[in-house]
Write a structure and sequence with these properties.
single chain, two-stranded antiparallel ribbon, 14% helix, 18% strand
């Protein structure tokens, strides 16, 4: 039996256009399915879900967004 809170959220608007995933930024929380949206204007995205101070990404191509974010971030500094 599927409970209502187990279902992915519906987009906020059926007329809303999908964001350009080349400009979106997101990161996965550890090894879980939780994905944080890193965009400043996430409130305009139909796939962003706000919860407290966090914004989660439910975009169907969020794995591509995460991969693109990883390649576009500067490298981490080396430890001394």
């Amino acid at each position: 039996m599927t409970r209502e809170h187990d279902l992915p959220p519906e987009p906020k608007s059926q007329t809303w256009l999908s964001p350009d995933i080349d400009f979106c930024r997101a990161r996965r929380f550890g090894h879980s399915d939780v994905v944080f949206c890193l965009m400043d204007d996430a409130e305009n995205c139909a796939f962003a879900i706000s919860s407290g101070q966090s914004v989660f990404c439910r975009h169907p191509e969020r794995d591509k967004i995460i991969a693109h974010t990883k390649t576009s971030l500067p490298p981490k500094p080396e430890k001394p």
